Amino acid sequence: MTLTHLNPESLHRSPVFSQGVQVEGAGRLVVVGGQNGVDATGAVVGTDLGTQSVQALRNVLAVLGEAGAAQENVIRLTVYLVGPADATAAYAAAQEVWGAHPTAVTVLQVAGLARPDCLVEVEALAHVPSGS
What we know:
Elements: E1 2-6, E2 17-18, E3 20-24, E4 27-35, H1 49-66, E5 74-82, H2 88-98, E6 103-110, E7 120-129
Parallel strand pairs: 2-6, 5-6
Antiparallel strand pairs: 1-3, 4-7, 5-7
């Protein structure tokens, strides 16, 4: 599988995300359902967006690991923030947990999530090459 990050010169460049990602090659598709900032017991960690974002992204990585995938395989993230919210803390969390693996990302502000004490939910789409 070949991932090509698409960042045309005519668009804004960010160290946190790519404008698009092209996937070529055979393999498996991994869909990670919405992950909140909860620990293994289901308890929400922290009351702030940054702390919950770090945990939500760690949860995404745990699901990917279960499928034999890693963040390098992620082709898209969707982040839902309970709004209005300043996404700065979520972007800082992405830098801390996600590191230098920018991917295509959509960030949405929503009125609320299924759990009222959650401030963020993260979905992921990944492609794992055949034989991995």
